[in-house]
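hey m, so remember when u said the tokens were messed up on ur end? i reran from scratch. heres the input so u can diff it against urs
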Amino acid sequence: TAGPRVAMADEVSVTKRTFTYKTFDNSTNQLQADVYRAADDTVKPVVIFIHGGALMMGGRGASTKPGSLFDTLLQGGYAVVSIDYRLAPQVKLPAIIEDVQDACKWVREKGPDLFHINPQEIFVMGQSAGGYLTQVAGYRVTPRPKALVSFWGYGDITGKWYSRPDDFYRQQPLVT
């Protein structure tokens, strides 16, 4: 559905449209994506943006405030697709990764016709848990994105750093 035109940084006229990119259970549950782009029909490179929230909270509108990174990307000539994904603990990590894969596939396949993007110029970007999912996109999304930009994304969640206390904190009285 078409959304209102909004003024972003330096008064670039930007449109926001919301699309459903994935449905479950006979269309009763849906995952959506907000597409932001300059209000023209020129073909743009696209950034798929993945929100943070420890894989348990947050949503696609969390980082779209005026003056945000979104403004900079839009000023730079990119379209931005901010996606939702299913959250833990209702689903496990494999389902969340599947949602990211499906969002990237949807952008690549449907984006050229729906919102005038170049499917050869797909970038993935995210913050915190979204940064982690951005890193995962580098080896789980095919074809691979052109680039990955992970802000505060944690790395290997099966690593020792994630499952055991740091030696610094072990100097304190241990908690059972």
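this time it looks ok to me. The longest helix spans residues 93-115. if urs says something different then somethings off w ur setup not the seq
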